[in-house]
Amino acid sequence: MSVLKIILLIVIALPILGVGSFYFLAQQSKNDDAPGLVDGVLAECPSSPNCVRSEAGTLPTHAVEALPLSVWDQLAAVVEQTGGVITVQNENYLAAEYYSKLFGFVDDVEFRKAFDAVHVRSASRVGHSDMGANKKRISELREASQE
Questions:
Q1: Does residue 28 carry a pLDDT above 60?
Q2: Are 86 and 79 in contact (CB under 8 A)?
Q3: Nearest Cα to 138, choosing from 81, 35, 29, 54?
Q4: Residues 6 or more apart whose Cβ sits within 8 Å of residue 86
């Protein structure tokens, strides 16, 4: 096989493998659930930079502010309005899934109603970096809930 044919094969095969890998990971992300409450609080973020959380003790690199308690009653509607799909809802906890547009990767967004605020956690199920998507999502939810 000539060098040119090998190079052409590589140039064609690499993008196909890359897209296939992303598709596979996106499908894998759909096979899980949000972590839920752990000892009464939202689960801690993993060490990867694809998670934000408002609970006390969160590392500064993952920390976001909690939402005001006043948004709790409209939170489900705001989640749906911003593209989320609610998977669990009770009087003190709400979990939703958001899907990326390109491959359908799943991000979990969770809310815990505390006595003085609504704590939040938003995390990608797979991968390492989310390029700030989860932090941006919480900002958008904060803005939408105050309208």
A1: no
A2: yes
A3: 54
A4: 76, 79, 80, 94, 95, 96
DSSP lists the bridge partners of residue 58 as none
Quote the pLDDT of residue 92: 96
List, for residues 33-90, the tens digit of each pLDDT value.
788 899 999 999 999 999 999 999 999 999 999 999 999 999 999 999 999 999 999 9
**CATH code assigned to 3-145:** 3.30.310.80
Counted residue by residue, the chain has a size of 147
Residue 97 corresponds to which tokens in the numbers above? 């899934």
Query: Can you give the residue ranges of every domain in the chain?
Result: 3-145
Residue 69 near residue 54 (C-beta atoms within 8 A): no
